[in-house]
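Model it.
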Amino acid sequence: MNPPTLRIAAACAALVIPFVLAACASGGTRVAKESAPMFTAQRVSEHRGDDDLLTAGLGLAGLRALTPPAFARPEAPSVAELRRRAIWANWRGIADLAPGGGYGELYGSTATVPGREFSALATVPGASKPHRVLVQVPDAFDAGKRCVVVAASSGSRGIYGAISVAAAWGLPKGCAIAYTDKGTGTDYFDLDAGEGVRADGTVGARDAGLAFPADAPVGATGIAFKHAHSTDNPEADWGRHVKQAAQFALQALDEALPQSAPFTFANTRVIAVGVSNGGGAVLRAAELEGDWLDAVVAGEPSVLAEGGRALYDYTTEAALLMPCALLDPALGPLPQPPLAAQVAPLWTQRCASLKAAGLVEGNDTAAQARSAHAQLKAQGWTDEALRAGALSVGFDLWRAVAVAYASAYGRYRVGEHPCGYSYAVLNPDFSARAATAVERAAWWSDASGIPPGAGVAIVDSRMQLPDPSFAGLQCLRGLWQGQGADAERVRKGVAETRAGLPRAGLPVLVIHGRDDGLIPPAFTSAPYVRQAQAAGREVRYWQVRNAQHFDAFLGLPDYGARYLPLLPYVYEALDRVSARLDAGTPLPADAIIDTTPRGAGKPVSAAHLAIPR
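Modeled.
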């Protein structure tokens, strides 16, 4: 394998020399007046031959491999190896690549796309820590139809976290792809070793141009990461992160194609797309002033709108109540994630804990489960969302999200979490230990951005038997429902994330699975669309039956039998907004898309998907 050739831009021979791109402000009347962004740690790399932009040379077969691409030296992988493995991990974290799932056959592309990557760190005004931006410019970029697809990573993923969403659609069409990790990502910092992640993904000391130099008190131990510990509440700026990525794309295109420069917002089409939290980010970008953005596609967006519920609110509610509620036979049979048999006794104990705390009624588990189920229904949860939420309970996702987001919303530093949580590598007896060089080296490529994962775990100082996580979850819930300085601090951070209306005249298409159990549409996309449509905005809404939140988990047999992927509808939505921009074709009408589950052991067909045509 030939490693990609790395070229450091002459203006940035010193790794962290900032400069302002004048061309970013040259978009004429289409650019809002604001200070130009600062980009640092710039790098350019070429990806051709047995390497490429879309799959790092792995192709569909390589992406389907159950084991990640190996490192020649596990304690010190090369930049090329880290990139390839990060692309493998992020494809598998978002898309359903399992045979029979339809990817590469009914929808999607893993075509070989040669080209160049331009990457940097960018900082929004007022923030103390940067976010990553990266632009992929294919060799077949269509300079006659200038197109940039800008995407925000989903969840807390790293810079390649939207590659299967944006690049799979845009690169084969000759578009450049601009990414932001939106201030989240996998730039972990090892407090014990004093080492973090450099701009190129390798590990280095604090003075080595790190992407996230953690602010921590002397003597702090364990692991810090950007989303939880930047003290910036990055979600409040997700829209601005998206816009900066688009601005960086103009710079990259000027450098990549000087014969066609200048590239400006006036002469270059920009479409924003994202799923999950990335979908929320592009909706926040849609509200920014200035005619810089041409269309938006948001899949299963985590967004807080008038009449909706905050992520932190329903996440902490679910973390406490859902394990017990799922024992109500009225919700059965549940889809079965791995370890279902092992977690069921913990769910029974949760019912007992809730009863002892006065949070549910009933003298036996069955009655307590009915009580928990009734409470969730009263708060707007549908049975479809609760059934799909069994996966989030089984994998402890509710707690993982709540712990990290409490820290982010409250802008807490390392060691300041109001509920006493921290992060570390753990021994089998749950005691913390120092990470090894091999573990550190893989964090950037392997992690999903929020522990647990990639060897990093949540440390719960309140943990005690018989329900180890219950006391900590009560504390997290109290930060939403309770009183005191910490609760006010967290709620203030949540309020900073409230979405406004998209710009008048901006085409927006929102897609959401009606069975989404992690970001229920009743709390998020539905109120956002109501608010936007009531104000006369050009927003359309596709609701997909039998689709839940995680395409990547459709490889689990029971989930694959019950649910269909959402990505095909995101790609179709991109086609529709593109046609709207090309020919003035009206956006499709709002629709509830009636799909048909494929059943056990059957491949997905076009008839199952029922994509509107």
